Amino acid sequence: MLVAAAVCPCPPLLVPQVAAGAAPELDAARAACADAIGVLAAARPDRLVVVGSTGSAGTESYPEGTPGSFRGFGVDLAVRLGRGDGPDDGRELPASLAVAAWLLERSSGWPDVPVEGIGVGDALGTERCLDTGRDVAAGAGRVAALVMGDGSACRTLKAPGYLDERAAPFDAQIARALGAADVTALAALDPVLARELQAGGRAPWQVLAGAAEGARLGGALLYEDAPYGVGYFVAAWS
Fold this sequence. Notes:
By secondary structure, the chain is an alpha/beta fold. The protein is 33% helix and 21% strand.
């Protein structure tokens, strides 16, 4: 059963070494992420599942100890998902899960519980996302989820996807749903519109919606902004 969830954005710029001189611009987001992960720790879960967006077509599991790095972003910084040695098949964390691993490594007081990563393809259909979430919730007596994903990338003229007038209302809908722990609203997100607005968080958020069905969690929106024209949200459910 899902007992707590933290929702965080996943831009590599969240890591100060990657952001370099622009690092202070996301200080508030980092602080909110730390607070949200603190809610997960306080829930005393038996298992933590980290869900992040990927460019793949389906889902892929990343066992505890899977390594990741930010070398692709010009920084020689390695991370690892939880503890352990990880797989010996050369698998590495996608960027969203590498950011999650970095957040967990810097959090204080995180309990020694098993951790698993799930990469969710941007094009994964709603029903498959919801089913994946239901499987996550059924995986242990007390499950916590760290859900990584960004909103639209079309909020300004300089945004990665240029300006789209549909982006701000779409992100406002996301903010309301995350702040209210509204699983119905998250499940109703339009995958086609999300793809057109380059909102990579749609699939992970719908996994969360499936995991939280019947859990009666309350939500709090801890951060909402669109630096660089991309919608970033931090929320805590418990």
